[in-house]
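Notes, Module 5: Reading structure tokens.

Key idea: the token line is not a picture. It is a compressed description, and you learn to read it the same way you learned to read a sequence, by spotting repeated patterns. We will look at two proteins. The first is printed below with its tokens.
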Amino acid sequence: TWKDLGTWNTLTEAMDSACVGEAVLNETCRNVHVVNELDMPVLCMGLQDIVVAASPEGILVSDKEQSSYIKPYVSSFTQQVMFAEKSWGSFRIMDVEKESLTIKVTLNPGHKMNYHSHEFRDEVWTVIYGEGRAVIDGEERRVKTGDVLRMPAGCRHMLLADTELQVIEVQLGKDISVQDKKKYPPLKPL
């Protein structure tokens, strides 16, 4: 059976259980659904006809009837994307400061990032899980859990994952921007 899941309310009608992710509804809740993508619990008490959706991009708490009217409100937000899943893996922004940005990057086995450099920022990578290879200014080196790599502004760099590879990437500089990325042709097979 086809059902358009274009609103939170219609999504909750298709859910097998009241909660996806870590959530607790007390016995006084009626017709409450929670979709929690965060690494922290959601507790709902005394609610009725409510949908709660929690993700790194934001938290929605809405009466189910009102949930279809969120678009103009969400469109007015200018928040940076905080999480994305891609074919190569995922990234999650963990911390944003005036002159630093901290990201957890997960590369799936056999995938790599583009060979690139940044004009206005340095980067420090800490490998927290897995094994792979880093290429820094044309030199390849093996990396594993616990390794720390530093790439100053202008340095060409990339990562290749031999296993799932998780890296904490800290960007440092006065002008941190997604536009500050210069891509280079792919390197010969490594």
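Here is the second protein, with the sequence above and the tokens below, as before.
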Amino acid sequence: MTQAPITHAMTVDVEDYYHVAAFANVIKPEDWPQWPSRVEANTEKLLQLFDDANIKITFFILGWVAERYPQLVKKIHAQGHEIASHGYSHQLIYKQTPQIFRAETAKSKQILEELAQTPVTGYRAASYSITRKSLWALDILAELGFTWDSSIFPTRHDNYGIPGSPEEPYRIITNSGTPLLEFPLTTAKVLGQSVPAAGGGYFRQYPYALSRWLFKRASNNESKPQIFYLHPWEIDPDQPRVPNASWFSNFRHYTNLKRCLPRLENMINDFPFGTMSQSLGSTQITRELNIKELAGN
């Protein structure tokens, strides 16, 4: 029996360069309006790229951005792309209270739905910050009407990750009994270790041949759908430089910005991409975990 072709998920987290966690110690949210924004122009470059490639993707849009650039949200939707939530203020969830997280997430969802005039049912946390310390956020997402999430990175990292969690799409049963589909970020097994292969900084830091090999390995030779992600600022080598950041933050943020767009063009030529919903629809989800099991208890 011939297996139906799979579709990988191409995703963009719509935020500006001054929103990133790497600069959180030197740029406070109240200072964001003082920085020159480049998110519109960079996102429109990506829209043109995806239009030229004739693919539709998923844009996880920060509520703070949507509030200030409503026409950008409308343009993304008008061009047939899927709109999902990236929260409102790009804060690490495990540093928020459940009350603040619920209020911000509901606010962002409402802003996006009013602009796009369509239900927003997908979510991705800032910096993938649903970890074992913040699994309570999954219950809130389900309560607010989200049906799928892409916030869990099944790897070890200083800011995020749930090592040992499933590496393929699975169903989470929240404490209320409501199911939530989880599409974890791409990792590839290399010598028994889960190596990140989903895009972003890894995509800029690895040679392209390595990124391509890891992504193909994770997909088991195109038999399992995977996720690729990046941010609009990652294709912008001319963005303002942030002073007083650590050398490590500068390394993470600025490495190979000039190479990102050509590599992205190669990526969409080398693999079949679509939206998150299209990708989830091309796979059979058989694994199911409750919150306690996900926490490893």
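Summary for the second protein:
- The chain has a mean pLDDT of 95.
- The domain at 8-295 is CATH 3.20.20.370 (TIM Barrel).
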